[in-house]
């Protein structure tokens, strides 16, 4: 019995490494398919975007208006995200807002604010007939597409010195925030209570208050969080990108983070799962990307900083002259940038912490610089507008009925001073 017991111990000692090896093999064999599947999924996500971009064709092209103008900003009515889209609103360099039917691109309405300059355009989230724009006369104006009147149905007034050049409305349509140009030493984020917009009360609304200490130059962009209605991020020509929680009692407590892009900010947005990341583009075509969820950790918050995207992205047989904006694609958990050429080509660029890479290019649509875009993730369609005065709707596999391409419409008329100029020379970029 004793001999048998000792023999059993000897067997275990001698063959224990073999047993471990077999167990490890089984463990590896068991979990290897999961690793392969996950890698394949990641590849498929990017490949899917590439296929979608490759299949995009011009479905509709808006008719040129009597007064051609640069198309500077685009928004679609929010119920559009649930496949019930009705309207597209476009802000133009001739100080007007134009509204189109989203599916046909037929012109519906035009709202003008002469002599003020309209900056940006946004639909209310809960009502697809309410559209807003900030104005250089110190107001944010609201129009109701259902009404025949060409006048603003509601006006949110600022303070006498305010010149608004950026704005946004939060997720639950409760708060409007607008950013000002610097006047003397002052620059402001101005807030209003937006409740009642769906009733379109005609009374002028006064501000709830302002933030005045966080920026020291023109506030060029404002973007509320896509999910959390109290979170907002602002960008300025002072190079700073500030994130706020406006539920706090004062500006100092509200300021969550300050990120420095080291250049004048031209575009900002939220990205990442639960939208805990912030990114920006600059007027000299730089790109910065931060993870503000890392603020209370020892991990660095900067995910990527590219001084000049034009030098960082390789475009074979073409070039990249400028950036238009960014898009976080929820389905694939990927951040993309949109850029282009002066001849109207559009480049889609994928962002990763290891750098930027070209996904694909759309050609043959625009004949001049593209200034604005809006991507509807529901049907993967893309709206683009540019300096050729054209509004284009791109859809996967679409066939444009009118094959007669419009001639180049590079507009010679004067454009509002806020329109950015894309410099291509290194000398201009350094200056």
Mean of residue pLDDT?
Answer: 83
What does the main sheet amount to? 4 strands, antiparallel
User: How much beta, percentage-wise?
Assistant: 35-45%
Number of strands: 28
SS content category: alpha+beta
Query: What is the name of the CATH architecture of the largest domain?
Result: 7 Propeller
* Shape descriptor: globular
CATH class of the largest domain: Mainly Beta
CATH topology of the largest domain: the name is Methylamine Dehydrogenase, Chain H
- Show unreliable segments: 6-41, 403-431
What does it look like?
InterPro entries: WD40/YVTN_repeat-like_dom_sf, WD40_repeat_dom_sf, WD40_rpt, WDR89. It comes from Stercorarius parasiticus. Residues 1-21 form the signal peptide. By secondary structure, the protein is of the alpha+beta class. The protein has two domains: 44-65 and 320-402, no CATH class; 66-319, YVTN repeat-like/Quinoprotein amine dehydrogenase (Methylamine Dehydrogenase, Chain H, 7 Propeller). It has four helices and 28 strands. A four-stranded antiparallel beta sheet has the order 1-28-27-26. Strands 2-3-4-5 form a four-stranded antiparallel beta sheet, with no helix packed on it. The protein has a four-stranded antiparallel beta sheet with strand order 6-7-8-9, with no helix packed on it. The longest helix is centred in the first third of the chain and has 54 residues, at 2-55. Mean pLDDT is 83; it is low at 6-41 and 403-431.
């Amino acid at each position: 019995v004793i001999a048998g017991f000792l023999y059993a111990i000897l067997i275990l000692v001698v063959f224990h490494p073999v047993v471990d090896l077999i167990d490890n093999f089984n463990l590896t064999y068991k979990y290897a398919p999961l690793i392969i599947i996950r890698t394949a999924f990641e590849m498929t996500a990017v490949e899917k975007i590439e296929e979608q971009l490759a299949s995009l064709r011009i479905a509709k092209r808006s008719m040129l208006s009597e007064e051609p103008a640069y198309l500077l900003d685009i928004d679609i009515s929010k119920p559009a995200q649930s496949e019930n889209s009705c309207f597209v609103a476009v802000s133009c360099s001739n100080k007007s807002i134009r509204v189109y039917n989203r599916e046909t691109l037929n012109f519906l309405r035009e709202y003008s604010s002469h002599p003020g300059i309209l900056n940006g355009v946004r639909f209310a989230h809960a009502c697809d007939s309410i559209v807003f724009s900030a104005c250089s006369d110190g107001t944010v104006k609201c129009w109701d597409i259902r009404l025949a009147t060409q006048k603003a149905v509601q006006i949110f007034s600022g303070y006498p010195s305010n010149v608004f050049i950026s704005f946004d409305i939060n997720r639950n349509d409760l708060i409007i925030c607008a950013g000002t140009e610097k006047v003397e030493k002052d620059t402001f984020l101005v807030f209003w209570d937006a409740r009642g917009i769906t009733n379109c009360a005609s009374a002028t609304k006064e501000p709830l208050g302002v933030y005045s200490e966080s920026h020291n130059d023109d506030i060029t962009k404002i973007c509320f969080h896509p999910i959390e209605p109290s979170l907002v991020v602002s960008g300025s020509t002072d190079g700073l990108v500030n994130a706020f929680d406006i539920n706090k009692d004062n500006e100092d407590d509200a300021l969550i983070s300050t990120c420095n892009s080291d250049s004048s900010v031209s575009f900002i947005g939220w990205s990442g799962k639960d939208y805990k990341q912030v990114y920006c583009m600059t007027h000299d075509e730089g790109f910065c990307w931060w993870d503000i969820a890392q603020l209370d950790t020892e991990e660095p918050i900067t995910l990527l900083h590219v001084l000049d995207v034009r030098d960082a992205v390789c475009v074979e047989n073409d070039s990249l002259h400028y950036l238009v904006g960014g898009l976080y694609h929820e389905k694939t958990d990927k951040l993309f940038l949109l850029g282009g050429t002066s001849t109207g080509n559009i480049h889609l660029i994928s962002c990763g912490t290891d750098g930027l890479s070209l996904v694909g290019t759309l050609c043959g649509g625009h004949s001049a610089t593209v200034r604005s875009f809006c991507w509807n993730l529901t049907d993967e369609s893309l709206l683009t507008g540019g300096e050729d005065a054209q509004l284009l709707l791109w859809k996967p596999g679409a066939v444009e009925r009118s094959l007669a391409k419009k001639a180049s419409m590079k507009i010679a008329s004067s454009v509002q001073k806020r329109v950015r100029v894309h410099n291509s020379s290194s000398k201009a970029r350094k200056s």
